Amino acid sequence: MAEAEAAKLPIIDLCSSDSISTANSIRQACVDYGFFYLVNHGVEEELLARVFEESRKFFSLPLAAKMNLLRKENRGYAPFYAENLDPSSRSKGDSKESFHIGPLEKSCLNQWPSQELLPSWRPTMESYYCKVLSAGKRLISLIALALNLDKDYFEKIGALDKPESFLRVLHYPGELGNSEEEIFGASAHSDYGMITLLVTDGVPGLQVCREKFNEPRTWENVIHRNGAFIVNIGDMMERWTNCLFRSTLHRVMPTGQERYSLAFFLEPHAECIVQCLESCCSESSPPRWFGNHFCSTLSRAVVPYNINYLLRFAVGIT
Question: By C-alpha distance, which of 258, 218, 43 is closest to 132?
């Protein structure tokens, strides 16, 4: 793993009684880093332990059993090297395998291991999905305050009415074998949506690059904090905030240790219209429009878009 300094990410307490101070801290974190730790989020350590145990059980299954659940409609199993999140990379693909779980309201689209194989998998993952979704909604209300909006702003515009949120269960191998090419656990990317809530098993590897358009890139290690989620801003929220909040480039580097993580992507309702927030625009910072999730500036005109357009892009992986 390349030598890098530790990122000095702020810590946000979701249970703080001072919501204004917390919102101000979130604003500063999202402007400076686009990443922060979230503590007192309400997801019990016992549930996290069970989710990681079920994750290990699933990824330990024979490949044939996992391939029976091969990803469809962005739900199910994705094998090693099936994805490459950095189009500029010449790598054969990212060294990870994953399992994708979509909105529970659309459970007919989700795929699940059989009860004979993993009897506790589905109830454990569904319980975790609901808990993290609840924490994410509470956090979104604080983000609204951080943007000088009403606390229930995103609820009032329907963003959190049946949100299009996805849980991705991820496994990175310890041994990669001999290869002359550079291998990434997850190559450099930014997430496409609103916010991501990540928790890992404590094995390092996650790195962030605050200035994604600078060359050469400077990477910083994200240090594990027991019991804390790692939260990051996605491209959609960057666009929503007129680039006030930053969607930060990040990657996972191999460390020689097996690694597990859980990434929850909180996204708005499929019909939610996303456009630059008035509170993030001014004469000196007029509204911008980005034509795609790579944030290429095409016009300064405000062009609202439907999230269904953005959902055509690949989901970011952390």
Answer: 43
Computed from CA positions of residues 74, 271, 133, 241, in that sequence, does the dihedral angle turn out positive or negative? positive
Supply φ then ψ for residue 22, to 5 degrees: -65, -45
Residue 34 sits at φ, ψ, to 5 deg, of 75, 5
Is 222 in a helix, a strand, or coil?
coil
What is the DSSP track for 144-201?
HHHTTS-TTHHHHTTTTSS---EEEEEEE-S-----SS---SEEEE---SSEEEEEE-
Task: Give 287's Cβ-side CA count (13 Å radius).
Answer: 12
Residues 6 or more apart whose CB falls under 8 angstroms from that of 148 comprise: 279
Count CB atoms within 10 A of the CB of residue 255.
Answer: 14
CA distance 44 to 48: 6
Structure tokens at 226: 């027991």
- CB contact set of 254 (below 8 Å; sequence gap of 6+): 1, 95, 172, 176, 183, 184, 185, 205
Sequence-distant (6+) residues with CB within 8 A of 202 are 224, 226
Q: Tell me if residue 49 falls in helix, strand or coil.
A: helix
Phi, psi values for residue 172, rounded to 5°: -115, 130
As given in the structure block, the two tokens for residue 288 are 């911008």
* Residue 40: burial class (beta carbons within 10 Å; 0-12, 13-18, 19+): middle
State the Cα–Cα distance between residues 53 and 41, nearest whole angstrom: 21
Tens place of pLDDT per residue across the chain (318 aa): 447 899 999 999 999 999 999 999 999 999 999 999 999 999 999 999 999 999 999 999 999 999 999 999 999 999 999 988 887 777 788 999 999 999 998 878 999 999 999 999 999 999 999 999 999 999 999 999 999 999 999 999 999 998 999 999 999 998 876 666 778 999 999 998 999 999 999 999 999 999 888 888 899 999 999 999 999 999 999 999 999 999 999 999 999 999 999 999 999 988 888 889 999 999 899 888 543 332 332 222 233 434 443 443 333 344
